[in-house]
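EI: anyone free to look at a 145-residue chain?
SC: sure, send it
EI:
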Amino acid sequence: MQEHLIPGTMERVARHTSPPVQQRIETQARQRVHRLAGAPPHDLTRRIENLEREWDIERVLETNAATVSLVGLALGALVDRRWFALPTVVAGFLLQHAIQGWCPPLPLFRRLGVRTAREINDEIVELRRLRGDFIEMGADVRGHA
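SC: here you go
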């Protein structure tokens, strides 16, 4: 199989996450879903609502980059011009993340449990399945009858 230099959007963060961290994130999601099996629908709905507000890795990285860049700009304007290099470096790493799916803070945020939008959505789908949202379709969301 050919390895692409620019991975697809859905795979790029997982590709740059260490296997133990990736496994821990997936296991924790499965455990949360398992704990809610048999829970009343309002508990499932509350968890789904919380998940819909959860910040994904892209939002966390964007916020981090913007914050560090603004701090660098402020320090460059108020303290020393050399601080202007900081937003430049941050912009370069943000571009690298957009293209390859990796940047320096990514491993830290992933170890802290920050998930991709897909990982969050997978948990939402499983909770909706438990809640019975897909019964009318005659198949679950994976296409099984």
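EI: Residues 57-114 form one domain.
SC: 👍
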